Amino acid sequence: MSEGTSLVMETSENGTDLSQDDTGTIEETPEDTILLHQTSVNLVPFIGQRFVSQDAAYEFYCSFAKQCGFSIRRHRTRGKDGVGRGVTRRDFTCHRGGYPQVKPEDGKLQRNRKSSRCGCLAYMRIVKRAEFDVPEWRVTGFSNIHNHELLKTNEARLPPAYCTLTPDDKARICMFAKAGMSVRQMLRLMELEKGVKLGCLPFSEIDVRNLLQSFRNVNRDYDAIDLIAMCKKLKDENPNFHYDFKLDGHNKLEHIAWSYASAIQLYEAFGDAVVFDTTHRLESYDMLLGVFLGVDNHGVTSCFGCVLLRDESVPSFSWALKTFLSFMKGKTPQTILTDQNACLKEAVAIEIPGTQHAFCISHIMAKFSDWFSVLLGSRYDAWKSDFYRLYGLEFEEDFEDEWRGMIDRYGLHENKHIISLYALRYFWALPFLRRYFFAGLMSPCQREAINAFIQRILSAQSQPDHFVEQVAEIVEFNDRTGSKQNMQQKQQKVCLKTGSPIESHAASVLTPFAFSKLQEELQLAPQYASLLIDEGCFEVKHHTQMDGGYKVIWVPCEELISCSCHQFEFSGILCGHVLRVLSSNNCFHIPEQYLPTRWRINGSSCTNPLRNTTREQSDKIQLLESMASTLMAESIETEERLDAACEQIAMVLSRIKDLPRPTTYANDMVYNCPSDLILPEVEDTDGMVQSFTIGNSQEPLSLGKLKEKRSRDGLDITRKRRHYSGSSFAQFGHDSPDCPIIGGDSLNGDTLGYL
């Protein structure tokens, strides 16, 4: 390409795409009419072009440069607003861009190599943008001005950027190496196989030798079989650590999965909605990383387990799901959220057919720049906004009608991606998923928290020899952070904003995280109008809305509530439509079944103690919980207060156990709770999370006996740490080994804390 046909493009301040020839003349150029000499239209970069990742942009520009006759290199830069968010801008430049650096005269002998850099101005700039919580890389600058001769067609393969080894090439070279062939023999044989002339392969002898050296490094230092040894070590240190693996016919590690001690307890309480993320790979082991995640009653991300897979096949995913369920005692989640993967979809249908499967919308929309950016051109932004609006609709009928309108408006009737998305709409569109419980995992803030957690796990691969141990520290740190946050939330004074009795009732039962969600709905409730249209049936709509609305069913005698928006089924939090009906009809409390156990302050308890109780008994239980919280806050002020509290609680517990216990509780009350009295965690001045366990002894347990336990066991219970993040205060009364909190393990009265 000659210099006279070169173009330079940059985004102006008002967003107009500008083009400039080498004479300095600037003119507006439509992005879809840019043509360069000797290039295909589809390969020419244009302002506004989108890519799913930096690598995708690099590959595109690399193909363009190779066809033009020059090589490229990466140049890393950061945007002004990129502090703490990584790279937000990157420039790809001609390999001859810039000028050679002047080396300091330090007396050392330097190699006298002539630099190829001559200040070439050709480049492509991409900037990271996030729309609808999905990051994309957009072209904001492009120049094809060169001040040097471009390579001829037969020379374009010589620059290092174009010396590439495909996965098939790597596999063939590995096989040849095992057969004992020399590098030159490999090159001659591959030239014959590919039918190319001598020396015309897209890679050189040096590339092959470097590849073989990397194979040797992997086999020596980062052999994935060492993962088994790591897991065995953790199992020996903690019997509650679980792991399993599978070897192939060559005795090579094929799959491995593991789960930490705290995961089973967390999954028992919060495993109703699970995210199975399989979108990342561990380069250290060249294996697919899968992470099972959830969210607890305080909105903190919980890790249930990890798995490494050799490939993305149906048998691999089936093995991962089956192994995970074996760790979790066979309990299946209500819903599972994954990437859009055909093999994973089939594996979920086979292993957990009763679980509602959904695709993460952010993973789907991340592919849109590749699928639709070039196809739609300037209409891409408008189409993406329309799609996201359709995704969030509330009613299935509205989705079907507006989807057809969108297809007609953008002429996408024959597009294969649109056809596939519509066929799979029951897996990603919210109108078809609102009837199922996802615990808020589809919200942008939860997706961001999950992505941050996975990034910390990926950072652990920098030490592959200790990867599982590094991940264990990350999980433990996350549990401690969640425990600290939980304790801080418990001690915070709840701020009531509406003055509604419903708000006061919810504040005494729900965690601050869940209560804040309900409080938002309570504040929106007065904006709705409620109209009784039939017995027990109400029409609720916004005061500015003339038509439509929501249908709310309320049967007071049965304490039955439902709304056509299905928000309670979807998130476990009542919607403003229901709250409007309750407040308008003088209902001053929320029925117990609409305050889910998983969102309660003691959401990790085995069984909700307020279930099947009378109103008077329920009030007394809530009063007891309130007193326990106050006792905790007051006791941790000093060591003297703490000792006094432990002594008095032991006396009260002993006295209660002496009272007669009926064979059946009044009104069939159920108290399936742990046999030990566990005080919530507190934080000492040194930042260490503490827990206290008072044994279920038949004799009164005094402070003196507590001190005897300290000296006998060599432990200080005020410093004992535990991994279990939930708290269950003032719950006792049985010795069942089946309690999910205890996990069926043999814990006697002398046990201090949880494993």
Automatic annotation (TrEMBL):
Bias (Polar residues) ranges: 1-23
Extent of the signal sequence: none
SMART domains cross-referenced by the UniProt entry: ZnF_PMZ
GO cellular component, as recorded: nucleus
Limits of the SWIM-type domain: 550-586
Region ranges (Disordered): 1-25
MF-aspect GO terms: zinc ion binding
Main location: nucleus
Gene Ontology annotations of biological process type: regulation of DNA-templated transcription
Keywords per UniProt: Metal-binding, Nucleus, Zinc, Zinc-finger
Protein localization: Nucleus
Described function: Putative transcription activator involved in regulating light control of development.
Similarity field: Belongs to the FHY3/FAR1 family.
Protein name, UniProt field: Protein FAR1-RELATED SEQUENCE
